[in-house]
Automatic annotation (TrEMBL):
Its EC number is 2.4.99.12. The active site is at 58 (proton acceptor). This is 3-deoxy-D-manno-octulosonic acid transferase. It comes from the Bacteria.
Amino acid sequence: MPSDFLIKTTFFIYNTCWKIVIPLLRINKRLAEGFSQRTLKEKPLKADLWIQAASAGESYLAVEILKNLKFNRPVNILLTSGTKQGFDILERSIKQIKDKHITAHTSFFFFDQPDLMNKAVNLIRPEIMVLLESELWPGHLLALKKYGCKTIIINGRITDRSLKKYLLWKSFWNKIKPDMIYAISESDAKRFSVLFGNESVEVMPNIKFDRFGNNEIEPLIKNPIVELFKHNTSFIVLGSIRKGEEPLIEKLILDILKRRPDTVIGLFPRHIHRNRHWSKALERMNIKWSLRSKTRNRAVEESVILWDTFGELICAYKYANAAFVGGSLAPLGGQNFIEALDCGIVPVIGPYWDNFSWVGQQILDEGLIRVATNRQEAADILIEHIDNPLSREKIKTAAKEYMKHRQGGTAFACNVITDLLNKIN
């Protein structure tokens, strides 16, 4: 185990680095949002239960938990996220609370400066800390450990790549480790066990299965994508495209438009700041394109719409004739293809989807996803889906049946949380 002196020295250096960096972070537009909360200028309220959702994906998991929690006594809940999109999802979720005993409020997640985190934890005074999926910050974990808060990971997942980084100083992470980890698969559980030991790791059903069928367009009255197109326009979505696969996606776009020049492609970068790259790339490729924000109230005449607005990927999937889900043409682990399937589209993905292997190989065997070995095959399948459209209702029915046998994660998580709170009180 690392000596107390080494731990203290490490955190002293870590704390000093944060002190230097925090004033500069205000320059970052993403981090400038909620800056007063991130720095505790705006103080959080006391909470019995604190749930941290790193970004949008984890925030949707928090929503599922919040909707299903039931208590027989008053419980205050703090919901935090590090991103504006995640924060907004949590804000909306408060309106869906069904238990009269629950009072909930939100905040942006605080910067991990140890001094700041100590202050945050002592202001919040949580009895239970729930980390969703894999949100591990050393300043945060140490502050919780010092305060004596019970810390658990729900819907836990960890990649081989992340594990290797943590193992560089395994003893350090064991000093501040969570009390319990509930992992979404046997393979994730084994990786967590290598880092933290078998005694603190269990397997649970993935909450993401419970979210299937829960992607209604709210509070919109109708799908805004419909108004962008002329009747019978073929529309392909390229969703959640990652930086590491951009050169392959460029060739994919050129291939599709060469073979189907009347097709419109909706391009959704996983990170919106990559729009600058795509603006230059589309100009270089001599493709007629426009930003989504420039297409409002008019029919699209361009070949590519570059999405620069949040919250419309589900809307696009619901309208599209075919969809490719990114993070999968290069070894990046893949992105969430269940959203497209939930909209009645068989998603096309590349060969790298190990981050979503928990969905099960059977989903491929049943034809509910199509895995292309390369970008040429991806283009072939997308065009096949346009030429020979599949029944959305049949896809939804088959997918619902597949998911039904894998659900139960939300109930599991809620039972864990309520049992812990009951034991503490």
